[in-house]
Amino acid sequence: MPPWTLIFGVPLVILALILIGLFFYFLKVWVRAAMSGARVKLWNLLGMKLRGIPPTLIVDARIRAVKAGLDVDTNSLEAHFLAGGNVINVVQALIAADKAAIPLIFKRAAAIDLAGRDVYDAVRTSVNPKVIDCPDPAKGTTMLDAVAKDGIRLLVKARVTVRANLERLVGGATEDTIIARVGQGIVSAIGSSETYKNVLENPDHISRKVLDSGLDSQTAFEIVSIDIADVSVAGVSGAREVSNVGALLETERAEADKKLRQAEAEGRRATAIAAEQEMRARVQEMQAKVIEAQAEIPLAIAHAFREGKLGIMDYYRMQNVMADTAMRESIAGGDEKSPVREG
Fold first, then answer.
1. Which end of the chain is more exposed for a tag (fewer CB within 10 A), N or C?
2. Is residue 321 domain-resident?
3. How are the residues of the chain apportioned to helix, strand and coil, as percentages rounded to the nearest 5?
4. How many helices (H) and strands (E) does the chain have?
C-alpha cells in the first residue's frame, strides 16, 4: 500500500466518520423539521451546536411558528436565545396574538421578553382582561380610607379591570402604579363630595369620575372599568348590623355636639370662677392699701405737732368730730337694723 494512501486516507476516513456521526446525530431533528414544513439545513444545525444553542429548542420553536402560519427564521430565534430570551414564550405569544388579530411582530415581542415582562401573559391579558384589587390586599390594606366634605370617613374597596397595552409594555408603568392612581382618584372624588350620602347612593358616580381621569396614561395597561366593590362608613359601631346608618350617624353626631357644648360651658364656668377669685383678690389688695393709709395718719399728726402746724385744741376738735361721726354712723346703723315703729 503506497504511503500517500495512509497519509490522505486515514484523515478522510476519520472526517467521513465524523460527518456520518453528525448526520445521524442531527437526523432526527432535521427529519422532524422537514416533515413539519419548517426545513432547516444540516449546516445550520451544526452551527447551532457549535455556538452553544440547543438545536432541538430552535427547531421546535420554528415548527410551532410555521404550523401556526407564521414565518420566523432560525437566525432571529438564535439571536434571541443568545440574548438571554425565552424563545418558546415569544413564539407562543406571537401565535396567540395572531389568532386574536392583535398586531405583534417578532421584534417587539422579543423586546418585551428581554425587558423582563412575560410577553405571552401580556397577550393573554390583552385578550382576556385581568382584575386588580384596589388597594392590594398583599400590602396589608384591604380598604381605602377617604373623608367627604361633611367630615364622615368612608372605607372603599374597588376592582379595576385592565387590558395589557402591548405598545406601551416596554417602559410602561406596572400594576402598582395603576393601584396607586386609582386609589388616589377615589380618595379625591370622595373628598369632593358634599356629603357621604351622595357616595353611598351613587358609588358608580365615583368610579366614572375616576375612569374619566385618564389614569392609565404612560402605563402598560388600559383600564377597561373601575367598579366599587364595597363602601361603608368608618368609625360607626354596629354599622353593618343596623339598617339606618344615617340615623345612627346623626345620633352619634348629636351626642358629640352635646359633649362639646358641655365642655364649652364648663370652660366658661371655670373662667367666671377665676375672674371672681381675681376680683376678690383685688378687693383684699385695696383694703390692705386703705389700712396702710390709715396707719400713716397718726404719724402725720405727730409730725404736724412737731412742726407746730397743729395745736392741742385742733387735735381735740378733730377727736370730737371723729367721735361725733362714729356716733352718727352707729345710730344710723342701728336704725337700719331695727327701724322705729310709729306709735
1. C
2. no
3. 65, 10, 25
4. 12, 4
What tens digit of pLDDT does each residue of 81-97 get? 888 888 888 888 888 88
Q: What is the pTM of this model?
A: 0.54
Per-residue pLDDT of 251-264, as tens digits, reads 888 888 899 999 99
Q: Does any domain span residue 144?
A: yes
Q: Which of 199, 233, 267 is the last residue of a domain?
A: 233
Question: What does the block give as the cell for 333?
Answer: 346703723
Count of domains observed in the chain: 2
- Cβ–Cβ under 8 Å, residues 90 and 122: no
Q: How far apart are CA 193 and CA 45, in angstroms?
A: 68
User: Cβ distance 203 to 178 under 8 Å?
Assistant: no
**203 prior amide bond cis, ω within 30:** no
**Cα(first)–Cα(last) distance of the chain, in Å?**
185
Residue 52 CA to residue 136 CA, distance in Å, equals 43
Q: Report how far residue 15's alpha carbon sits from residue 22's, in angstroms, rounded to the nearest whole number.
A: 10
What is the domain extent for residue 62?
A: 3-127
Long-range CB pairs of 199-208 (<8 Å, 24+ gap) are: 199/148, 199/154, 199/231, 200/154, 200/231, 200/233, 200/245, 203/228, 203/231, 204/228, 206/156, 207/158
